[in-house]
Design a protein that fits this description.
Strand content: 35-45%
Mean pLDDT: 95
CATH topology: 2,3-Dihydroxybiphenyl 1,2-Dioxygenase, domain 1
Structural class: alpha+beta
CATH superfamily: 2,3-Dihydroxybiphenyl 1,2-Dioxygenase, domain 1
Number of domains: 1
Number of helices: 3
Strand order of the largest sheet: 2-3-4-1-5-8-7-6
CATH architecture: Roll
Largest sheet: 8 strands, mixed
CATH class: Alpha Beta
Helix content: 10-25%
Order of helices and strands: EHEEEHEHEEE
Length: 140
């Protein structure tokens, strides 16, 4: 049996000033933002910088009660979570639960870019918040 993780989708970094951080990535590293989106349900604005087949996801809160706002208030800017691509988010989430893992999302939900996502609690493994990311099915 092959593993449930197919590749790294993104590394998410929480920032106070999205515009300034994007400008740094563009000016210093020559990076290119390929997607921007406000995710109202999570209270964040994101900018995705493409790196090969993955992304650096820069996140900033759009409201004071968002998880990213809480993270920034407690820990300051920095690595927020790692997103792993999976073929079936529900299956991967069920595997975590079956293994006794704590989850934040009990069922997969819509994410940015038309993805389906679910978060695994950082207390499950090595203090790392993990996002399972299922890409949208191609149009037929």
């Amino acid at each position: 049996m092959s593993g449930l993780l197919t590749e790294i989708d993104h590394v998410a970094i929480a920032v106070h000033d999205l515009a300034a951080t994007v400008a740094w990535y563009e000016d210093v590293l020559g990076a290119r933002v390929v997607h921007r989106e406000v995710v109202d349900s999570d209270g964040v604005e994101e900018a995705l910088i493409e790196v090969a087949d993955s992304f650096v996801q820069l996140l900033t809160p759009t409201r004071d009660d968002s998880p990213v706002a809480t993270f920034l208030a407690r820990r300051g800017e920095g690595l927020h979570h790692v997103g792993y691509r999976v073929d079936d988010c529900a299956l991967a989430l069920a595997a975590v639960v079956a293994a006794g893992g704590r989850v934040i999302d009990t069922v997969p939900r819509p994410g940015s870019r038309g993805t389906t996502v679910a978060f695994i609690h950082p207390k499950t493994v090595a203090g790392t918040l993990i996002e399972l990311v299922e890409e949208p099915s191609p149009a037929r």
